[in-house]
Structure formats: C-alpha cells, structure tokens
Amino acid sequence: MPSVNTIIPLIGGKYYHIYNRGINKSQIFFKQENYSYFLLLWKKYLSDNVNVLAYCLIPNHFHFLIKLNEKISIQDGENRIEITDEIMIGKNVSEAFRRLFIAYSQAVNIQENRTGSLFQRNFKRIEIEDDNHLKYLFFYIHYNPEHHRLISDFKDYRFSSYKAYITNQSTKIAKHFGLEIFDGKNNFLDYHKYQHEEKEFLTLE
After folding, report:
1. Which of 61, 127, 173, 180 is most buried (most C-beta within 10 Å)?
2. Which SS3 state, helix, strand or coil, does residue 193 take?
3. Considering Cα of 203, then 178, then 48, then 13, what sign does the dihedral take?
4. Are 18 and 8 within 8 A, CB to CB?
C-alpha cells in the first residue's frame, strides 16, 4: 500500500479514502452552516462523477469513502461530452476537488476575516483494493466523531453518512454500493455494533 505521503493519481472506477485537515491542524468548520455548505459544494462539483459511500465532517478535518464513476460527462464549450478514459476521469475529479476546496476556503476566509490557505496542501487519497479494508473504513469514518470525543455515540452524529444507511429518506449517498459490500443492511448494522481494530490498516486522522 502506498505511503499516505505519496500523491497517487485518481483513476476511474476505483475506490478511494479521501481525507484532509486544516492547515496546522486548525479548524475548518466553524459554524453549523459551514458543514452544510461544504456538502452543498460537494454535490455541486463532485456528485455527478463519484459515488459517495461514506463520509464524516468534524471541526478540523473530513473523511470521504468514494468510488469514481467509470464514465463521466463534462461540458466542452456548448456541448457535453462523455469521457471513458480512466486517467482522464481521475484528472477531472481531481480538478473538481480543487475547485471545491477553493470555493469553500474563499467563503470561510470571508466569514472568519482570515487570509491564506485553509486546508493542508494536497488532499490525501488512498486507493482501497482490499474488501476487509473497505468494510473497515465504513466503520472508521462513521466512528470518527466518537473517537475524537465529540459525541458519546457516533450513531447520533449529524454530519456523517451513518444515518443515511438506517433510514429510508432520500440521500445522495450511494447506499446500494455500500449495502452490497456488506451483503445487506443487517450485516452493515452488525458490523457497526462493535469496535474494530485497525490491524494492518494505516493509522490516519
């Protein structure tokens, strides 16, 4: 598995753990509406090109577990064109991430009367190829707010994808992919009942 310090390219059709934090570990979400705005920007820039399987936003960092689409549609002048080349898909998704972070940073800098970078340079990305690692990341991401002692039970945390899996409400989360990975909702819920150790997996945020 590549080092977390290695900037690996995004590739169409692959699974990735995407995460980053504030520069010098500083805060990136200051108000409740900041979380909502970040998710709104995610929807604007990325929802057509990636499937979000899990996410969590906490005050100084975020986590996303995603699967890039195998084909995407982009605007080319007055026309929309389809891209199926996996390298080009990855480059377009990377650019969409860059635009999201810039848009969010600009808004927060105005709100907080600050200047300069908000996020650490180069968002982290790890390609996930092992099914056990993929399952573990669902738990790891959802458990994150409890791990950081923001809440006593991660299942009640507002800004994560966990509740999307246990309700029938409309959501942008790709629940079908997530539940297929666990072979159904009951197995998904059972997996989240217990504390899982990282074992051979990398320690992240």
Report:
1. 61
2. coil
3. positive
4. no
